[in-house]
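[Meeting: bench + compute handoff]

Bench side (C.D.) handed over the final construct sequence. Compute side (W.E.) agreed to return the predicted structure before the next meeting so the bench team could plan truncations. Sequence as handed over:
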Amino acid sequence: MKQFLLLFYFFQSGTSLFGQDVSLIIREADRLESSLNESAAYEKFKLALKTDHRNYYALWKCSELCSRIGRRQATRGKQMDFYKAGRIYAESAIRVDPAQADGYYALSVAMGRLAMMESGNDRIKAVKAIKENADKALAINPTHGRAWHVLGKWHYEVSNLNAVEKAALKIFYGGLPKSSLKESIKAYEKAMQYEPAFALNNLELAKAYHRNNQDDKAIALLRLLPTIADRTEDDKGIKEEGKKLYEKLSR
C-alpha cells in the first residue's frame, strides 16, 4: 500500500524541491545502483520524481528496480506491491515518451513478475503483455539486450507449458504465437551479443543450452559466469546457481 500512496503523490503533485537539481539526484541514484544498493537507489530515483514527475529515465529505472527489489520481499503481499508499482512506473514512462524502448522493456519485466504471482486469466493476460512489450521495445531498439533477454525467457517458459496451459493461452490469444526452445536460444544469444556482461542472461542461456542437449556450450558459459562483475544485488545468487549447475553438468 505504501508504494501506491507514494506513486499517487508523485503523479498528482506538481511540487518541486527547490534547490535540488534532478540531474544530480539521478547521478547519485545511478552511483548507488552501481554500488549494489538498490533500495537506496530506488529511493533516490523516487526523489528525482518528486522534482520532475515526468522524468522518463527515473520512471523506467524505478520500474526496473521495483521488479528486482520485489523478488527479495518476504511476503507475497509485499512482492505484489512492488510489482504493481513497477507496472505503474513503466506505464507512466511510456505515456511520457512512447517513442523510447526502455519503458516497454521495463513493463515487460514487471508483467513477467506479475505473471509468476497471478493465476487464471490474469496470468494469461500478463504472459501476453510480456511478449507484446518486449516486441515493442525491440521494434524501437533492435540492440536492446535486456529486451532480447525478456523475449528469450518468454519463449523458454511458453515452450515448456503443458498442453492445458497452451490451450488456455491459445484461446486467449486467438492463436498461440510461435514459441520454441530454438527461438529462446536465439533471443538469449542476441541478448549476450548486445550485453555480454549480463549475468542473468548468461545463466538462462546456459539452462536453455542444457535443455537443448548442448551441454558443452552450457558448461563454457557457466565457466565464464564467475568472471562477470556483479551489477545487481541478485548477481551473487545468480553465480551461486550457475556454480551448482556447472558442477552438475561437469560430472
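W.E. noted at the follow-up: The chain has two domains: 2-197, 198-251. C.D. will use this when planning the next construct.
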